[in-house]
Amino acid sequence: MSAITLHEALALRARLYALIREFFAERNVLEVETPILSAAANTEPNIESFSTMFSGHVDAGSPERWLRTSAEFPMKRLLAAGVGDCYELGRVFRNGEAGRRHNPEFTMLEWYRVGWDHMRLLDETVELVRLALAMVGREASMVSMTYQKLFVDSLGIDPFTASIDTLREPLRDIEINGEGLQRDDWLDLLITHRIQPVFPTDRITVIRDWPSTQCALAKIRPGNPPVAERFELYLGPHELANGYHELTDPKEQRARFENDNRRRESRGQRELPIDENLLAALESGLLDCAGVALGIERLLMCLCGSEDIRDLLAFEFSGS
Predict the structure, then answer these.
(1) Domain extents in the chain
(2) Strand 141-146 versus strand 203-211 pairing type
(3) Residue in 139, 136, 140, 127 with CA at minimum distance from that of residue 303
(4) Model pTM?
(5) How far apart are CA 215 and CA 206, in angstroms?
(6) 279: exposed, middle or buried (C-beta count within 10 Å: 0-12, 13-18, 19+)?
(7) Least confident of 38-42, 118-122, 193-197, 305-309
(8) pLDDT tier at 276 (50, 70, 90 boundaries)?
């Protein structure tokens, strides 16, 4: 390890977990634990899931099970069952990348607030991040802006009206295979390659009101243009958290899952099983709520000033 020893990394993680649990206990937010394996998968085309096979009795359902990429779907089922405000601090899994910035197995903090919108939840997320920084004697300023203003201020481009050729221009010096890339893909590349890397180290940057085509599981607010009621929070150049004013309409949710699978098919990816249990829970009634997921290793990297996620792991993927 470079900037931090193994013992220091493990101790810092333990202190952060204690802070998180105290934070939510003071606010009467219930800690829950949900399954890691599911008969349904994440249909999002840009996320790849791990799967495994169950060899037991056939009446247990589908033998193929998917390791969760987040705890979102089962937690929403708990919300629909009336559990109320809750959080989970647990392991999640994403296939495809391992190295300085990614580990296929990592820890995610996810929480939901009933009766809140994404803006109120944003304030609470900033509060938690600032408390974590204070734990290591650091502070951070905060800037919040819309997705549109971010692009206009950073690149002089309106992301809602610019042509794809205009979006590609700032990336001309980077070798990118553009085959099959759509408008949202170019917008994402501009954020990751041109905008995000220059965010000041000791600043919390919040980007809200995303394009409706990047709504994920968020509600869409009508307007010109319509926008997703979603925020992303960055600490320095690191993306830490993604929050939504949650979609509660089961028909719209099914349509989004089906559209994901169509996009997967167009890319030559496998169509994945939709979470029918989540849709049934939405049918039964999910109260208006907001939820956010925060990457623990990314936050730990920021706390100790590391640029390598492997500094914060007891065992990295190649040696686990």
Answers:
(1) 6-319
(2) parallel
(3) 136
(4) 0.93
(5) 16
(6) middle
(7) 305-309
(8) very high
What token pair was written down for 274?
Answer: 């939709």
Residue with tokens 């349904």: 40
In one-letter notation, the amino acid at residue 282 is L
Per-residue confidence (pLDDT) for residue 179, from 0 to 100: 79
User: How many angstroms separate the first and last alpha carbons of the chain?
Assistant: 16
Distance from C-alpha of 13 to C-alpha of 3, rounded to nearest angstrom: 15
Q: What percent of the chain has pLDDT over 90?
A: 86
Q: Tokens standing for 224?
A: 């010109």
* Structure token digits, residue 265: 């098919």
Contacts of 22 (CB under 8 A, 6+ apart): none
d(Cα 9, Cα 296) in Å, to the nearest integer? Answer: 12
Report the phi/psi class of residue 96: left, alpha or beta, with left for phi > 0 and alpha for psi in -120 to 50. left
Model confidence over 68-79: pLDDT tens digits?
A: 999 999 999 999
User: What pLDDT, on a 0 to 100 scale, did the predictor assign at position 320?
Assistant: 65
Distance in angstroms (rounded) separating the CA atoms of residues 245 and 225: 18
Q: Which two tokens stand for residue 95?
A: 């296939």
Q: Which option is the CATH number for 6-319: 3.30.565.10, 3.30.390.50, 3.40.1550.20, 3.30.930.10?
A: 3.30.930.10
Distance from C-alpha of 28 to C-alpha of 23, rounded to nearest angstrom:
9
For residue 5, what are its two tokens?
């020893």
DSSP structure class, residue 218: B
- Find out whether 62 and 46 touch, Cβ atoms under 8 Å: no
pLDDT tier for residue 1 given thresholds of 50, 70 and 90: very low
- The HSE-up count of residue 196 (CA atoms within 13 Å, CB side) is 17
Instruction: Note the pLDDT tens digit of each residue in 77-87.
Output: 999 999 999 99
Q: Mean pLDDT across the stretch 46-75?
A: 91
Radius of gyration of the chain (CA): 20
